[in-house]
Design brief:
The protein is mainly beta. Helices cover 8% and strands 47% of the residues. A six-stranded antiparallel beta sheet has the order 3-2-5-12-9-10. A four-stranded antiparallel beta sheet has the order 4-1-8-11. The chain starts with a strand and ends with a helix. The relative contact order is 0.24.
């Protein structure tokens, strides 16, 4: 079992996202400020590689980027089973539609943010809380 809580800051123009956990689509549509998912996993979590993906899509750079306005999503926090650690959102990588790989929580381009974590979740978070990334 895993509880996944994600908090976003949404900038202009109603950005579109997909949230995928270990290959299963959890949400597709306009980004909201927060999401909570409770997953009962029949076979448990994978020990070394569980993948949470946030896919940004639908941005038209001519229409959705104007002056100081940008269609973007900022990942503010990720909680796994109620636990988090400082800078958890920069643990993942964002690969843009321009094939750039960025260590960022600012999803301003179309692309995929991938956050990988181990199991048991609590041990993984505790280890990363003190050792960094």
């Amino acid at each position: 079992m895993i509880d996944i809580d994600i908090k976003f800051e949404i900038l202009s123009f109603n950005p579109m996202i997909e949230i995928v956990y270990n290959g299963e689509l959890l949400y597709k549509g306009v980004a909201k400020d927060s999401f909570s998912f409770h997953k009962n996993t029949r076979f448990g979590l994978k020990e070394n590689r569980n993948i949470l993906e946030i896919k940004r899509y639908g941005k038209d750079y001519k229409l959705h980027q104007s002056g100081d306005q940008d269609q973007a999503v900022i990942i503010k926090d990720i909680k796994l089973n109620g636990m988090t650690f400082p800078y958890i959102t920069t643990h993942g990588e964002f690969v843009t539609d321009k094939n750039e790989t960025l260590k960022t929580n600012y999803l301003g381009h179309n692309g995929v943010y991938t956050f990988t974590f181990g199991h048991p979740v609590e041990t993984w978070i505790t280890n990363h809380m003190y050792t960094g990334m």
